[in-house]
């Protein structure tokens, strides 16, 4: 038995599918438009909180490099440090790190976005016990994850158990911040 396909039999399902796709696309665009401002505001707030975490004495910040480097100032306008935002690829996605630097050494590190990392593993790079390993390290020397250092001469941090890729991502972001500091601030202080 041969089935005859008519233009009407093809056109009606095609138009129906097109209209459904059009309505869903419009709904998604509208939702994105409504939430975009709030998402941007939440991201900015998270970034500002992170800047205060890594430059604890700062009351205000001046932008040195747009959306990347900020000079932290105390109440009298004296520079207390620099907050530098860097990002790199982790195991599950982007990892954003804020590094505080003053006088050639790291004040603090804050992992302010690692939502795509594995819960209970890579997300543990935001734990204080991991982040505190960077405190006091020299910005003139590369930092490596201890598993990657065969020489024993480099500044090292211990990886989070079962999260070496995420640990390397945070370490790379901190090294990137140190390079930005050395290129833009060192000698100007």
Number of strands: 7
Element string (H = helix, E = strand): HEEEEEHEEH
Indicate the multimeric state.
single chain
Q: Main beta sheet: strand number and arrangement?
A: 5 strands, antiparallel
What general outline do the C-alpha atoms trace? elongated
Cα end-to-end separation: 87 Å
Strand-residue fraction?
A: 15-25%
Mean pLDDT: 88
Rg over alpha carbons: 24 Å
Protein name: Ion-translocating oxidoreductase complex subunit G
Subcellular location: Cell membrane
InterPro entries: FMN-bd (IPR007329), Ion_transpt_RnfG/RsxG (IPR010209)
Pfam family, one: FMN_bind
Notes on the protein architecture:
The protein has 189 residues and is an alpha+beta fold. It has one domain. The protein is built from 3 helices and 7 strands. It has helices at 7-54, 128-131, 164-184; strands at residues 60-65, 69-73, 79-89, 94-102, 105-113, 143-145, 155-157. The strands form 2 sheets. The chain has a 5-stranded antiparallel beta sheet. A hairpin with a 4-residue loop joins strand 3 and strand 4. The N and C termini lie far apart (87 Å). The mean pLDDT is 88.
Short key terms for the protein model shown above:
single chain; 189 residues; alpha+beta; 5-stranded antiparallel β-sheet; two-stranded parallel sheet; 3 helices; 24% strand
């Amino acid at each position: 038995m041969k089935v005859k396909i008519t233009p009407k039999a093809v056109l009606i399902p095609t138009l129906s599918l097109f209209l459904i796709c059009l309505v869903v696309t419009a709904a998604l665009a509208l939702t994105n438009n409504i939430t975009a401002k709030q998402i941007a505001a939440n991201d900015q707030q998270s970034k500002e909180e992170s800047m205060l975490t890594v430059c604890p004495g700062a009351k205000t910040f001046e932008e040195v490099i747009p959306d990347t480097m900020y000079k932290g100032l105390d109440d009298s306008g004296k520079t207390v440090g620099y907050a530098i935002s860097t990002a790199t690829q982790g195991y599950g996605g982007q990892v954003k790190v804020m590094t505080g630097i003053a006088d050639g050494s790291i004040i603090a590190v804050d992992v302010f976005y690692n939502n795509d990392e594995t819960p209970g593993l890579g997300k543990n790079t935001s734990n204080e016990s991991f982040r505190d390993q960077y405190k006091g390290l020299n910005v003139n020397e590369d930092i490596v994850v201890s598993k990657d250092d065969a020489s024993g001469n480099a500044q090292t941090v211990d990886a989070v158990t079962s999260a070496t890729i995420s640990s390397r991502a945070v370490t790379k972001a901190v090294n990137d911040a140190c390079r930005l500091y050395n290129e833009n601030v060192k000698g100007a202080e």
